[in-house]
Amino acid sequence: MPLIKSNVHTHTTFCDGKDSMEDMTRAAVAVGMDTLGFSFHSFTPFDPTYCIRDYYAYICELKRVRAAYADKICVLDGVELDLYGERPSVCDYVIGSVHYLKEEGHYYPVDLSARGLRKIIGQIFRGDAFAAAERYFEEVGELAEKIRPDIYGHFDLITRFNADGSFFDEGAPRYKKAALAAAGRLPDGAVVEINLGRLFKGEGGMYPSEWLIPELRARGCRFMLSSDAHCVQAIGYAFDETCEKLKKLGVRSLVRYKGKELVETEI
Fold it and tell me: Over the Cα atoms of the chain, what is R_g?
């Protein structure tokens, strides 16, 4: 049973997840969670391929599952709101995320594929990967100031395909300057998720990258563990191992939802 017993970054077949809401709830109960939050991708009119498909059906199913499992787990209604997405009128919490780079009225996804990102860098940013990273972190800053989400999702998603450093050097002054400028625009006490979605897929480590975590902590950020689960196997994946790693990076506690309440847990 994991030390951290909640996950509120969860996707289902109502957007780009692989498993149903009920199957994800059962999986969360099975691994010892007391709180599960569903966070459909907000509707993005320029790219309907991965976002919410039927909001009414989603809400009906969420209410049914919430009632059916009320004696086992608290089910929350959240949203992963893209910087350019449409915000629902009511929800328990908002995860704010950047998935696209905007250029001259067009939107380019940063996490679709390594090949796709390389094409974007080549054609839109004239081969300058640092320029793409700078644009990404500028949008993270915009997210902080325009949306002010409850949780900041995968802070450095631009690194998704950069595990081998083939796109850019994260230690380079230009990259670090852009990332730290975005960190500086987050409000004091901002909750930044420690996102394990990439780790689960075997594509690299967690978001944010390890060098960024002490920097964010020094700027007053708090941290929340997140599966970013798109299938039942991902819920709670490597939570305890990640807690041990975070302690070595100077993190002494995490925040999490216990029901609708945000609580702090020592690790």
Answer: 18
**What's the rounded Cα separation, in Å, for the pair 155 and 200?**
17
pTM of the prediction?
A: 0.97
Cα separation, 218 vs 232, whole angstroms? 34
Give CA–CA dist 134/173, Å, rounded.
Answer: 12
CB atoms within 10 A of CB 202: 7
Query: Is-contact 182 138, C-beta < 8 A?
Result: yes
Q: Which residues on neighbouring strands pair with residue 38, listed in sequence order?
A: 77
**Structure confidence by residue, pLDDT tens digits, 60-108:** 999 999 999 999 999 999 999 999 999 999 999 999 999 999 999 999 9
How far apart CA 95 and CA 127 sit, in angstroms, is 31
CATH class of 6-266: alpha beta
Count other Cβ atoms within 10 Å, centred on residue 240. Answer: 13
- Give the whole-angstrom CA distance, residue 243 versus residue 252: 9
**82 touches 140 (CB < 8 A):** no
* Nearest in space to 230 (alpha carbons), one of 12, 33, 28, 62: 12
Find out whether 61 and 101 touch, Cβ atoms under 8 Å: no
